[in-house]
Amino acid sequence: MENLLPRAKQAEFHRLKLTKKRQLTKNTFEMEFEIPEVLKPNFKFEAGQYVTVKYPSKGRVFQNDFSMTSAPFEHKISLGIKINDENSSTKDLYNDFEIGDEVEISEPKGRFTLVSKPHEFRTIIGFAGGIGITPLISHFKNILYNEPRTRLFLFYGNRKSEEIAFKNELDALAKKYGNRLQIFYFFSQETGSDNLFHGRLDERKLKLIINQILHLDDTDEESTIWDAVDEVLICGKGEMIKSLANACYSNGIPKRNIHFELFEEYNEDIYPQEKEFPLIEDIEVDFKLFGRNYATELPDNRSRLLHQLLVQKFPVPYSCKSGICGSCECILEEGKVELLENEYLTEKEEKKGHILACMSVVLSKKIKVNFDLI
Q1: Which of 9, 34, 277, 306 is the most buried (most CB within 10 A)?
Q2: pTM for this model (two decimals)
């Protein structure tokens, strides 16, 4: 996707030395890279961010995004990577690079981040599915290191126990911070003595977690642990995120406190659309993309801006279509749109006219947008 992004959003790459490589499970592995002193300003990052790795495979050059498991205080780049099948390019990434080799790594990016609050008492819970554990490890290590008053609960789902990536690291964290961190493993294809931990992490499972795990609060006899939750972190496949995010919201967590990161393309809304909009027909659209100016007409505003431009075969960049990745970010220069849910833009960016095409409902007869952001 990187080559399909406007210049303003393309990443800067640097060659980093591979210092560690190890297999975690049958189809996941870890890679660790050294950050030389001269590049430390370039690789300053926040917990929850990711990098793009550029590497050759089967005669092509791939650019894939991988979340970091390292925390900022560790001053290194550590990645957890999954091999999806025998033909996966990541299998070549594992086989073709050895310790001491240099690999092209982008500067860190992404907004699956939290504001650090070291002086507050906070309760943060995380839900991860499979390799979606990677950014949560970064978050949890960072919070445990910097926020001595924050307690954490992690709910981690896999098909089987043998597929748990980073289990040793997670168990070591739980042992070291036992009074502040609790980890619960769930398996969809493996049963144990307690049926609570059998099945997928979804809306139904969350209700059981609230009632059976996050119920009694030792710090406040008049409320539950769930009542004290400040932030929710979710990372995994789209259906899992959609189910859990809506379940958290339905059980009282504000949307602004529910943060999620997708690990695959997902073309559905995370939250259902709650508003109805007046019908507008024959909409003129002017937009700039890759240095070129385009003009088109939308039949109406029943579909969002990105969808309609893609239907007309314009090469607008996108990844998730769910307001999370920011690939379709643009500036509204003329006209009016309604921006639905988004997990990417800041309030400051919205005030400057930035929108996400995938989340934009057009509300004027003419709009003008700039995807090049410059």
Answers
A1: 306
A2: 0.87
